[in-house]
Amino acid sequence: MLRVAVVGSGPSGVYTAQSLVQRDPEVLVDVLDRLPCPYGLVRYGVAPDHEKIKSLQHSLRAVLEHERVRFLGGVRVGADGVPVERLRELYHAVVYCVGAASDRRLGIPGEDLPGSRSATDFVSWYSAHPDAVAADDGFVRDVRAAVVVGVGNVAVDVTRMLARGAAELSPTDMPQGALDALSASGVREIHMVGRRGPSQARFTTKELRELGALPDTEVLVDEAELASDPAYGDPSGLPAAQRRNVEVLRGWAATPAGGARRRIRLRFFLRPVALLAVEGRVGAVRFERTAPDGRGGVTGTGRYEDVEAQLVLRSVGYRGSPVEGLPFDAGGGTVPHAAGRVVRGGEVAPGEYVAGWIKRGPTGVIGTNRPCAKETAESVLEDAPVLARRRLPGDPLDALRAAGAEPVGWAGWLAIERAEAALGSSLGRGVVKLPDWAALRAAAGSAARSPLARPPAGPPCPADRPTPR
């Protein structure tokens, strides 16, 4: 039997586990996660009102309930956790699927003022990530105007959440503290700003159109800003996705302003150069007008504009963080690899692998992780005849405990699910996420003392793989 540890239970980790057990009936997989809850960014990154995307949890769940897959939450790896070297001793192979959770900074004066935060922080707060600042309703307290720097799907998500009201948010699994704060918020003006033009924006048309469907909210676009884009006048030469975006923006630009309660202003060819303080916190953003440079980029024009904002959320990309004990390419924010095999000092490191964003960088959508995971799984299985020769010390569970981990098994996760359903029922809502580490640990601890046994065979994994042996 080949015993594999997959570190990370988001889509890339689960797809890796799926590929391994699908392709080899002699593989046992432990999926480790530092959180007691599985699913990674599907649970903690997808916006609460995107129920269709969040339903992907059902297919991920089927993999984690496979008879040869075991979920072990609450296990830290690297710094302040199980050393990489020790994990390598406990398994024939270790696949790191740890994502790219660090946000990029703007690098401008005033960026650390109160009221200036990353979109990642905001998403973690309204998604009940246990690392989020507890009960931090300061995100929207006394905020009249907000600026979101960035024009990707995450920027659209946080803009939409700022504009949503209680009626739309209450049916979601958003934690009660965030729901109360957002429902009572006084945000009336939201600027979503990009330094380049509309044809270069990274959001998808589906996400973009959702902004125009928000109740009592209007989307305003300045046609003069759009017209600075050479592709605006004739978008026919653009790829289909960008062409559709430009067409949606053109429609909004042609629509006169109404009297909606909230306004979303989509701005282009502006780059932030400073956050300005008012009474010790963010009060405005200073932007420089940019212009196309003829090479796909932009150049500054020396013309500036100050935009009022008591909240600034930067959404300018993600990067991977190093795992103590693994090699790391600081420039790319990834682990050096060859077809998923970790490379140390120019040589492949036997038994160490990567998949997902830590392998290829923060690119693609959730589905992009599937072929990426498949490639890594194929590398693991190609190496299996040599890897499996090494004798292991037994079930890694005892060693993980000895290393200070307190693993939460599948029964512990099911207990968290029950607690979240009970919390929602008590609040007159559906499922409501537990908002912090203490609540999650208490719920997981209510499970029987057998949570770490390999779960019984659940329903078969998705139909594209054979029935387990």
- Strand proportion, as a percent range, falls in 15-25%
CATH architecture of the largest domain: 3-Layer(bba) Sandwich
Q: Structural class per helix/strand content?
A: alpha/beta
Number of domains: 2
The percentage helix is 25-40%
In whole angstroms, the N-to-C terminal distance is: 13 Å
Spatial sequence of strands, sheet with the most strands: 3-2-1-4-18-17-16
Radius of gyration: 24 Å
Describe the fold and architecture:
The protein has 469 residues and is an alpha/beta fold. The chain folds into two domains: 191 residues, Rossmann fold (3-Layer(aba) Sandwich); 212 residues, 3-Layer(bba) Sandwich (FAD/NAD(P)-binding domain), CATH 3.50.50.60. It is 32% helix and 21% strand. It contains 17 helices and 18 strands. The strands form four sheets. A seven-stranded mixed β-sheet has the order 3-2-1-4-18-17-16, with helices on one face. A six-stranded parallel β-sheet has the order 6-14-7-8-10-9. A hairpin with a 2-residue loop joins strand 16 and strand 17. Helix 1 packs across helix 14 and helix 7 packs parallel to helix 10. The two termini are 13 Å apart. The C terminus is likely disordered.
Short note summarizing the structure:
With 469 residues, this protein is α/β, with parallel strands linked by helices. It folds into two domains: 2-101 and 319-409, NAD(P)-binding Rossmann-like Domain (Rossmann fold), CATH 3.40.50.720; 105-316, FAD/NAD(P)-binding domain.
